[in-house]
Amino acid sequence: MTNQSASDPGADSRSGPPHPTRRMFGRIAYGALAVAAIGTASTYSVKAASAKGDLSSNLTLIAPAGAGGGWDGFSRETQQAMRVNKLANNAQVVNIPGAGGTIGLGKFSTMHGRADTMLATGTAMVGGIALNDSPVGFDDTTLLARVAEDYDVLIAAADSPYNTLDDVIGQWKKDPEGFVWTGGSAGSVDHLTIAQLALLSGVSASGITYIPKAGGGEAIQTLLSGTTDFASCGFNEVSDQIEAGRVKAIGVAAPQRIAGYEDVPTMTEQGYEVTLTNWRGWLGAPGIGEDETSQLLDVLRQTRDSPEWANALERNKWTDVWLTGDEFAEFIKEDTSRVETLLKELGL
Questions:
Q1: From CA 77, how far away is CA 61, in angstroms rounded?
Q2: How large a percentage of the chain has pLDDT more than 90?
Q3: Relative to the CA of 69, which of 126, 127, 217, 293 has its CA 20 to 30 Å away?
Q4: For residues 49 and 96, what is the distance between their CA atoms, to the nearest angstrom?
Q5: Which residues of 79-226 form beta strands (DSSP E)?
């Protein structure tokens, strides 16, 4: 990779009725969306920082998704922790949604040397780059840090006859297209989690009947109406509905059980080692210097070490997975390979 990832010596790595088959896959036209989004983004005023200035005084955090989404929440939690701790008094969040984060990435790749601006990134962008044949990628940025991750959980309606992964897989293998699944957009972490579960179970991932939804709330409504059988969603999106008993959790795609929800078993302990996680982190603009990269990393590290960020991790059911430098670059390569393999299995 040709990006300028900086090292960080101070970091620590811490059987149901059949449904009509309906597959909703699609490729977003990157070019048209990019032109529209970049035109919109140009109306924002983003101050250019002096190469010798203090970058913590003014920072712009780009969330490459709409308001209320996962990247938006991650960016605003970061903004709040920065403000409270006076790490970036004038931190602003700008939303540039579209195409799995690649519209924002496309705009960001043109901000050569803009050291006062960072772009939120993560698993969804890895998928977006591959799914949309994005003309830009991680090589067109400066890698900063992987910060946090969260995990998907497989849920069903509270009155579903399925209680364990073995219950689900046993029937799924008998009738691969008999179940209807739901979650986020095509190619999302939710979709990929189901694909990985299919591969581990000997079910053809390309035969999955999947209805994409905007979020956990919409997915739950399809379960309750009987439109779908199972949903794969971020645990933090649906934990309150699990707790309320509206839906049941069958398994969480995490290395260990989620604190506060110890009665929900992991997929791994049920014999299905689903390893895909929804990680989130930050990218710097292309062409920034080592000193500027170091300043940005220092701000991010102090934000990550703050009580406010610890509270954000707890509230959002996120896990701290701080990673920088060459290790972060290597992780990006491995994650890209894993996601591209799953997308190929899905026929996307």
A1: 11
A2: 73
A3: 293
A4: 21
A5: 92-95, 117-122, 142-150, 152-157, 180-183, 209-212
Q: pLDDT tens, 277-335?
A: 999 999 999 999 999 999 999 999 999 999 999 999 999 999 999 999 999 999 999 99
Maximal C-alpha separation, the chain: 65
The domains located in the chain, with CATH, are 30-150+277-346 (3.40.190.150), 152-270 (3.40.190.10)
Cβ burial of 71 (10 Å; 0-12, 13-18, 19+) is buried
Residue with tokens 């949604």: 97
* Contact status, residue 43 vs residue 36, Cβ threshold 8 Å: no
Contact, 167 vs 294, CB < 8 A? no
DSSP labels for 213-232?
A: -SSHHHHHHHHHHTS-SEEE
CA 159 – CA 246 distance, rounded (Å): 9
Band (43; pLDDT cuts 50, 70, 90):
very low
State which H helix or E strand residue 340 sits in. Answer: helix 325-346
Residue located via tokens 């602003």: 92
- For tokens 């060459």, the residue is 326
In b/e form, how buried is each residue of 94-126, taking b as 16+ CB within 10 angstroms? Answer: bbbbbbbbbbbbbbbbebeebbbbbbbbbbbbb
Cα–Cα nearest to 153, from 85, 69, 243: 243
Partners of 251 in the β-ladder: 154
- Dihedrals phi, psi of 291, to nearest 5 degrees: -65, -40
Contact predicate 248/230, CB 8 Å: no
The dihedral over CA atoms of 41, 42, 46, 51, expressed in degrees to the nearest 10, equals 110
Q: How many CB atoms lie within 10 A of CB 2?
A: 7
Query: What token pair was written down for 311?
Result: 């509270």
The one-letter amino acid at 84: V
Least Cα distance to 25 among 250, 187, 204, 200 occurs for: 187
* 252 DSSP β-pair partners: 153, 266
